[in-house]
Write a structure and sequence with these properties.
By secondary structure, the chain is of the alpha+beta class. The protein has helices at residues 5-14, 43-48, 107-121, 191-203, 230-250, 295-315, 321-324, 371-387, 405-408, 418-427, 430-433, 440-460, 464-470; strands at residues 19-25, 31-37, 50-53, 67-72, 78-79, 87-95, 126-138, 140-146, 149-155, 208-213, 220-225, 228-229, 254-256, 270-278, 281-282, 334-338, 344-347, 360-362. The strands form three sheets. Strands 7, 10, 11, 12, 13, 14, 15, 16, 17 and 18 form a ten-stranded mixed β-sheet that branches. Strands 1, 2, 3, 4, 5 and 6 form a six-stranded mixed β-sheet that branches. A two-stranded antiparallel sheet has the order 8-9. A hairpin with a 5-residue loop joins strand 1 (19-25) and strand 2.
């Protein structure tokens, strides 16, 4: 990959590139882009930026302040293997065209500030991140909503509901509900597709570590990426979703990172592995500590658990997220930590005894989140835990579902709706404002956007199942 503007310009010439594509992320977390002919690219563009209309981007500017600039990061350059026209892609940050100051609502800028705050705090030099974004692969998806109707319909060649379909012939071999974890082909029909996704990831600079079928029927999948620093991992998370969706699309399939698209089967989470290092030493490791964790790591966990309700406003930011985060099921809703318990909000992976591998895993997030905002918020919460020596309490290694009632009442759970976590964020966000990483404007804009565009629209509409429950009242 290129590392300087000169390298990018040379890469364009050497590879016969015809178009340059500029990508940036809106506030909710969707990539936006526009393209210019390759002959317009020169080194000065990296210094001067290139304009766009910010008023048309969700969560950005109002109409009277619409002009904005994107500044491409040369280290993010890659040749897009998914397009027919030779195209080089660059990920960008956003600035004000008058002051040339970074735009405070640009999620990538917020993530950059979080990395700088870690260094200025003196706690560490770098943080490493490893998200595990699960997703579904569907054959057909239909949905619509009006004043007098509302529906969705999903179909999948792997869906267990097709076991009785007259397909002439129906070849069977479909994962039953919650039995999709690791069966070989022919039950796993997406082995080659996931392999092609991983190979395409390698072409664009993402190192894949493992891929497999996930627990649910209907093509649930997971492909893990090798860890990286905060901003780079957020960049790669956006690129990962782009690759997954487009490789599936070319195969005539539809990939969805929606947290809970299917009733009665597992949702798709995005467990986030994280650690802090200083002078090439992993600050989370102590061979004498519980699960090999240091006291610093325990304080970091304390920060995550204390601020979890507010963090979920970024990490599980959709109304659909709370169809997944439901107490009493396998979702990680319990605000405790454990070295093996997967129903705990924080887990300490025990696969390796290597000091370099020691990390904590926050299991509440899902892939509907904006990774720049989520990773930045998690880091700020963890640092707050370290700075204020927040004790996470004792770990819980028991089966949380089998605890006696008096013990269960002592364990806090995650909130049960997007509305609740937005209220939590409104009350608890001072830790995000340290170092001007998040601003009050960003927090207020996020809350307002989510309520106006997601909470209220869902709250105001009748649910299809309500007709089953109440029509004959």
């Amino acid at each position: 990959m290129a590392s300087t503007p000169r390298d990018v310009v040379k890469q364009v010439k050497d590879n016969g590139i015809k178009m340059i594509d500029f990508k940036f992320v809106d506030l909710p977390g969707i990539w936006q882009h526009y393209s210019i002919p390759a002959h317009r690219l020169d080194e000065s563009l990296f210094e001067d930026g290139i304009g766009f209309d910010g008023s048309s981007i969700r969560g950005f500017a109002q109409i009277q302040e619409s002009d904005m600039l994107v500044f491409p990061d040369p280290e993010t350059a890659f040749i897009d293997p998914l397009l027919e026209v030779p195209t080089l892609s660059l990920t960008c940050t956003v600035r004000d065209p008058l002051t040339l100051e970074p735009f405070t609502r640009d999620p990538r800028y917020i993530a950059q500030k979080a990395e700088k705050y870690l260094i200025s705090s003196g706690i560490g030099d770098i943080s490493y991140w490893g998200p595990e974004a699960e997703f579904y692969i569907f054959d057909d998806i239909r949905f619509d909503q009006g004043a007098n109707f509302g529906y969705y319909y999903i179909d999948s060649r792997e869906g267990i509901w097709n076991s009785g379909k007259d397909e002439k012939p129906n070849l069977g071999h479909r994962p039953r509900h919650k039995e999709g974890y690791f069966p070989v082909p022919p039950m796993d029909t997406f082995q080659d597709l996931r392999s092609n996704i991983m190979l395409t990831m390698a072409q664009v600079g993402i190192e894949g570590e493992v891929h497999h079928h996930e627990v649910a029927t209907a093509g649930q999948a997971e492909i893990d990426m090798k860890y990286d620093s905060l901003v780079r991992m957020a960049d790669k998370s956006m690129l990962f979703k782009y690759v997954v969706k487009n490789v599936c699309r070319k195969a005539g399939l539809s990939a969805s990172f929606m947290p809970k698209p299917l009733f009665q089967d597992n949702g798709s989470g995005m467990h986030v592995h994280q650690s802090i290092w200083k002078k090439s030493a992993n600050l989370f490791y102590d061979e004498r500590g519980y699960g090999g964790l240091s006291q610093t790591a325990r304080y970091y966990i304390g920060g995550l658990l204390k601020h979890a309700p507010a963090l979920l406003a970024f990490a599980a930011p959709s109304t659909n997220s709370y169809r997944r985060l439901v107490p009493g099921f396998e979702a990680p809703v319990n605000l405790v930590y454990s070295q093996r318990n997967r129903s705990a909000a924080v887990r300490i992976p025990m696969y390796s005894k290597s000091p370099a591998a020691k990390r904590i895993e926050f299991r509440c997030p899902d892939p509907s989140c904006n990774p720049y905002l989520t990773f930045a918020a998690l880091l700020m919460a963890g640092l707050d835990g370290i700075q204020n020596k927040i004790d996470p309490g004792d770990p819980i290694d028991k089966n949380l579902y089998d605890l006696p009632p008096e013990e269960k009442t002592q364990i806090k759970s995650t909130p049960s709706s997007l509305d609740e976590v937005l209220q939590a964020l409104a009350k608890d966000h001072d830790f995000l404002l340290k170092g001007d990483v998040f601003t009050k404007d960003v927090v207020e804009t996020w809350i307002q956007y989510k309520i106006e565009h997601e909470v209220d629209p869902v709250r105001l509409r009748p649910h299809p199942y309500e007709f089953f429950l109440y029509y004959d009242i």
